[in-house]
Amino acid sequence: MQAPAHPPLSDVPALAERAADLLRTPGALLNLTPPEATVLVAQMRLVHFGPGVTLFREGDDVRLDHLLLVLEGEVSIEVGIGGSMIPVAISVVGPGSVIGEMALLDGSPRSASCTTISAVQAAALSRQGLEKLIDQQPRVAAKLLIGLGSRTGERLRALGEQLQMYAGVVEQQQQQIDRLKAGRAAG
Amino acid sequence: MQAPAHPPLSDVPALAERAADLLRTPGALLNLTPPEATVLVAQMRLVHFGPGVTLFREGDDVRLDHLLLVLEGEVSIEVGIGGSMIPVAISVVGPGSVIGEMALLDGSPRSASCTTISAVQAAALSRQGLEKLIDQQPRVAAKLLIGLGSRTGERLRALGEQLQMYAGVVEQQQQQIDRLKAGRAAG
Questions:
Q1: How far is A140 from chain B (nearest CA, A)?
Q2: pTM for the whole thing?
Q3: Domain A9-162 is in which class?
Q4: Chain-chain contact of A170 with B171 (C-beta, under 8 angstroms)
Q5: Is residue B110 a contact partner of residue B58, using CB atoms and an 8 Å limit?
Q6: Is ipTM > 0.90 here?
Q7: What is the reported pLDDT for A3?
Q8: pLDDT tens-digit map of B149-182
Q9: CATH of domain B9-186
Q10: CB of A139 within 8 Å of any CB in chain B?
């Protein structure tokens, strides 16, 4: 992660409060109470990125282990599609969005790339921060983990639907190929 | 869940011990110590299913909320593929396999169907069991949740790879269609 400095978020009370509020929006899917959000924020650090910075890169096996809560700015999420692996932006996310949860959970190669569109301020939770949270506030940690699991489940279902859509296109194209070949043979 | 009776797994010590052992195999990805596995098993119940029973059905919005650890027997995991939604078996899993983790985490419609191939004995953890675990042994709960998150991440990456494979096939088929059409126009 290209973060030249990452002070504890609690050093900047206004941003810490904003992070706690954003963690409680329905989109974050974490279902935290205000005190729980404050406890989680206490383990987060403040990170800044300029525009055009790659936060996570698809297939990257560098073991980044941070979850990011976007506080300011926008991030483009991209996947490589097709044999040519042309990056396709699948969404642009802004304040309140959580990215990198799989990086936090298992530090494995990314399934998507994330690039900042504008300057971005984010609250980062490292694996170490998560371990501390589990140690000191295990119930909040469990709630966070269930929330991240639900989010991943949503992505699984969305990917599954896309897969079925593609499978349908493959079927239709094959039928068209068969018809075209039959037509050529007949002509 | 079609479970006529589901006694606590601890009522059958031999199976409880087997469950604790299976939870610790590398395939379960949970990274539990023996005492942690025992603590988790204490929240599980024993369920039996006959052959040919659907455990979770794709798209089912009945909010089943159980995670199952297969103790005996085999389960077929299927997804509906293509416009025709023909079920395709994607894998057959046996003792030591964990299924239904998304059911446990968010009780949302299934992304795959699971059907027993033979008679199956399984250890079930309900949402209620998970809540108890979070309450009584939050560190074990957090470890379980991180493990389930890693598993889901692996599935996300596998699905992402399948999606790219399909996208590549769509591209190739389109090129073939274009060539066939050009050939027909020329002929």
A1: 9
A2: 0.81
A3: mainly beta
A4: no
A5: yes
A6: no
A7: 44
A8: 888 878 887 887 888 888 889 999 999 999 999 9
A9: 2.60.120.10
A10: yes
